[in-house]
Amino acid sequence: MLTNSVDQTLRRRADRVVPGSMWGHLHAGKLPPGFPQFYARAEGARVWDVDGRCYLDFMCAWGPNLLGYGNAEVDEAALRQQSLGDTMNGPSEAMVELAELLVETVGHADWAMFQKNGTDATTTCVTIARAATGRRKVLIGRGAYHGAAPWCSPSVVGVTAEDRTHLCYFDYNDLGSLEAAAREAGADLAAIIVSPVRQERELDQEFPTPQFANAVRAICDRTDAVLILDEVRTGLRLHLEGSWQPLGIEPDLAAWSKALANGYPLAAVTGKDHLRAAAAGIFVTGSFWCSAVPMAAGIATINIVKRERVIERLLDMGGRLRAGIAALAERHGVALRQTGPVQMPSIRFDNDPGLRKGDLFCQAALDKGVYFHPWHNMFLSASHGLAEIEEAIAAADVALAAVAERFGG
Amino acid sequence: MLTNSVDQTLRRRADRVVPGSMWGHLHAGKLPPGFPQFYARAEGARVWDVDGRCYLDFMCAWGPNLLGYGNAEVDEAALRQQSLGDTMNGPSEAMVELAELLVETVGHADWAMFQKNGTDATTTCVTIARAATGRRKVLIGRGAYHGAAPWCSPSVVGVTAEDRTHLCYFDYNDLGSLEAAAREAGADLAAIIVSPVRQERELDQEFPTPQFANAVRAICDRTDAVLILDEVRTGLRLHLEGSWQPLGIEPDLAAWSKALANGYPLAAVTGKDHLRAAAAGIFVTGSFWCSAVPMAAGIATINIVKRERVIERLLDMGGRLRAGIAALAERHGVALRQTGPVQMPSIRFDNDPGLRKGDLFCQAALDKGVYFHPWHNMFLSASHGLAEIEEAIAAADVALAAVAERFGG
């Protein structure tokens, strides 16, 4: 990394006018040296940093890039709407069309509402659940990420105890802790909010056991509480009708964002009929929640996902990537774990406190032009085809050799 | 209003797939009959509903439209950035440029951070204030609007008491209530959040008295609490350097959104140096907070506001509109009040419980193609020129005649 690089210069400029030079989940400060902070361009499966280096990208902007950066069909739909109007005195017809499309597509969805952030969607779900039940307690996974508002942020700096008074914590896939949390909430249980897959930073991913998912549903049924599925990260990548549909479990509410409009800013809440009145009775809004451009982009995105069988493609390509890396790891004698959905890859090394192997692996791959992430689940897009998977595996080969050389194979 | 209009058809379709058919501040349900819910197009100072009717618009999307809908220079900057990349693995150079521009432009701003919603910005301000002071209490105006999150929403449906445990209420421009709220907070006072102008629905607007604004600043200075100015609605319309700059009062933090990128979704927090470390220490983020397109639009917007002296134009045109309506009201013998900043008009009739005069006035103006609002402050844009002001005054003439005829002149 050259200290006179454009990225370094921008970081120094940013440091003068942005606290800590950057904030939030896109802060490159926790990535190994050499990872860029600033980006100049993105197209298909690739991103270019401000120094002109190109990477085959497996973060997909941490999820939003589902169809490839700058997907022509989505961008055309957005541009067409932009030429008519975006933020106006009310929504355009696109809002109704998008709500109809979600209702037609998503198993549990009888209605939809729209927001900007995933956090807007999860917070709206909790508010609807409390309005519907007249109760306050929310069961939430310990360590689970459901947004960055004071009630759910992973940091408690600047947060008051009261912001979380009514949260009861359970451990994912641990029925005992789930039942204990439900007992703690007692007659005041409003909702359980849960991720379709356990996807926590610096942990292996974990699919829900059928027992756990069924218990979540059963507790809600037994107590008339609301099951909120947080699809912000998984939505449109795991199962089009809803991530727990293959388990035969439907939530009462779901929160969506990230991939919903292929990078245009949009979030949504979908819900069942019995929560319609409660959803109509709360007050939630934002200056840009009804803007038409992201809704036009969302319609195009969902239609492409259906027509092009995008999820099957992600499964196929993700499976090939996982198999390729597993074979290489065996060949190099490097023990690693690939967990969770193949379309949201996670690569973590055995015996790797401090992530020294993970960091080296990612740095070496980055040198070969492939952008992997050491401690967060990654994302595939429809632009990741056979050639891209081969390119990624070739980079992983070099990177695993580096890990084997440094740490023993 | 035809019941087979496109708008009515869309409302019926929406009613099946959206709770209450619409939500939030853009819900047309509280407007007089005949006001559209859905929009097809917007350009300059005009909006077109889905039935093809065109209105000279004085809501400006409730604020975001500052330079005219579809401003060519802003849209070109946005399109140029869109062709490069929007939502990527990190920000583009535009984030640094925009932060630098805000620091250069806004009196108190030593740094900036970016979000999507005005509520994100106000919530971030409160979180920073609590992180910086280690205290919890926030003084807030009774009836003031600072967003739609559980801690500040105008509705308490689905909200818990604990969401507001640490709020202490004062009445705008009432020094006694302000001092009482500060005493209530005591040594736990973290911040005072205040609007530059009192702008509450169904109330006349009210400028702050110098005594009140100075007392807000003095209490914060005396107690080392944080003065948060909520510029979400006023930003870029009242004073480019900050709305309280003419009073000689600088906040420690300010929240911005709405007009910041002329309709592209963007919010910002600006702050003083002594809060930089606290701002760097909290965790706030969102999937689209670093997207490059709205930042490119924001840079273009601020540059145009400076170069074209937009605020002076809004003052001039707003002053002409106010004077024209005042003269007509006198001529028609209709008593009304126009309050607050002329660039954010408010027209309210004397002796008008239930807003029957206001509703009739707005309906009659709408029939003449001019979109006024009966119970919320309105907004001017730079696209409102002499011809538009004349057109609005001509419609107001007809509308005031209708009010005089129905209710007596």
UniProtKB/TrEMBL annotation, chains A, B:
Cross-referenced PROSITE patterns, in alphabetical order?
Answer: AA_TRANSFER_CLASS_3
Q: Pfam family of this protein, just one? A: Aminotran_3
What InterPro entries does this protein map onto? Aminotrans_3, Aminotrans_3_PPA_site, PyrdxlP-dep_Trfase, PyrdxlP-dep_Trfase_major, PyrdxlP-dep_Trfase_small
The coiled-coil regions, if any, are none
A GO MF label: transaminase activity
Enzyme class, one word?
Answer: isomerase
Question: What EC numbers are recorded for this enzyme?
Answer: 5.4.3.8
Its cofactor is: pyridoxal 5'-phosphate
Q: Which UniProt keywords apply?
A: Isomerase, Pyridoxal phosphate
Isomerase as a keyword of this entry, yes or no, is yes
**Family classification:** Belongs to the class-III pyridoxal-phosphate-dependent aminotransferase family.
Protein name stated in the entry: Glutamate-1-semialdehyde 2,1-aminomutase
Its organism's taxonomic lineage begins at: Bacteria, Pseudomonadati, Pseudomonadota, Alphaproteobacteria, Rhodobacterales
